[in-house]
Amino acid sequence: MPRLRWSSALAGRCAVLLLSTGWMAACAQADKPGNAAQPAPAPIVERRQPPAPAGAAQPDLAVMPDGALLLSWLEPMGEAGHRLRFSRSPARTVEWEPPRTIAEGATWFVNWSDTPHVYALPDGSLWAHWLRSTGPSRMDYGIDLVRSGDGGATWSEPQLVHPSGTPGDHGFVTFWPQARDRLGIAWLDSRQKAAAGRAGHDDGGHDHAGGAAMMLRAATYDAQATQQGEWPLDTSTCDCCTTSSAVTDRGVVVVYRGRSAGEIRDTRIVRFDGERWTAPRDVHADGWQIAGCPVNGPVTVAAGAAVWVAWYTEAGGVPEVRATRSDDAGDTFAAPVTLAKGSQVLGRLGLAQGNGHLLVSWLEQAQDERQTLVLARYDEGWAGAQRVDVATLSARGRASGIPRLQWHDGAAWLAWTDVAGDAPRLQAARVAFP
Question: In DSSP terms, which residues pair with 362 in a beta bridge?
């Protein structure tokens, strides 16, 4: 089972400060972002129940070119396997449309952290992926990719994004618009591990010390869902941390957790100008040494030449959410600030941009092991913090999965997995900042 926190015995190192605009966990005063100069009205949290049945989990959120919000999820079908479904919330509404099925299958690989994604390109096409078992090992699985040109009524035949027959695991996908009708995709790939006789990772403990490393690869697809190019981006990455991407005025950037000599696993970035990828570089040299995968990847958004990145680390021995900004499309970054710190911080971040602000979500854990979904808003310099607790979850450990965050119609929308009894239950909320 993946370890969700690597320093659980460090309670009490952070003080919880009560502020007039909310509360936030903070440590070193020099590291925390500045607080709003004037008190702000409290955020308004509205629960918006998705049209998903009991047992649904692994949500994803995406915004369409027409302003609609897409919510996707996996739901079980008993011995028949699983199905991937989605629903739209049109612009200027808060209601969900009846769900549609993207695909279903009996041989899918379903995992709490490596989950399907849905995406919309500027031409209106929809894209989606899920993980399919390729055998013979349980940890042999690949990425199936599909496209719809009619709003999700019909979908193309699924195709693997990597060579068929490649053993090992492939996943932790991020999508971006490479052009109006072209998709970009990056993923973690274990083909060089397989070549070294270490196909797949240990799903029990996620202990990846020693041996060949996972790698980051990318590809682009045209309007016929045909692969146009494929590249290796980094030959040594963390094995099972989520990836994220954003488009700058100098091309797309992809952020991920690297893996260097001595098992240093810090956040890295690469950029693609449409022809060439830059060499990997650290967003910040935290120096987190860990002989295993924390299953806790970075997130990024961009506008013009500005790039914002947030990530989880335990480089100082205490769980921490850090963030930084680049004004040159990811070539250099400012010194990071601390958004949250303390033994209660679980990470599993979301990041969105809206109305001149940055929205960051993460999970925290209480002493009774229940979890809190936190949302905080900052200005574009990571100052003016305003925090709200969106929900208290009944889920424990990895049952809560990875919450998703998007900006839609002037508000932050979140989707996450909770549990009701023994069954997963999909939840969603709209958070408005007056």
Answer: 374
Amino acid 198: pLDDT = 58
Query: Measured between alpha carbons, how far is 104 from 279 in angstroms, rounded to an integer?
Result: 38
Read off the pLDDT of each residue in 110-132 and give the average, rounded to a whole number. 97
Locate tokens 């699985």: which residue?
141
Q: How many CB atoms are located within 10 Å of the residue 413 CB?
A: 24
User: What separation in angstroms does the CA of 400 have from each of 8, 108, 237?
Assistant: 18, 20, 25
Helix, strand, coil percentages (3-state) for the chain, rounded to 5, are 5, 50, 45
Per-residue pLDDT reduced to its tens digit, 126-146: 999 999 999 898 889 999 999
Structure tokens of 404?
């998703």
**Nearest CA among 102, 191, 104 for reference residue 152:** 102
Q: What is the pTM of this model?
A: 0.89
Q: Say if residue 252 is exposed, middle or buried (CB neighbours under 10 Å; 0-12, 13-18, 19+).
A: buried
Residue 29 confidence (pLDDT) = 39
Q: CB–CB of 256/238 below 8 Å?
A: yes
- DSSP 8-state class, residue 192: H
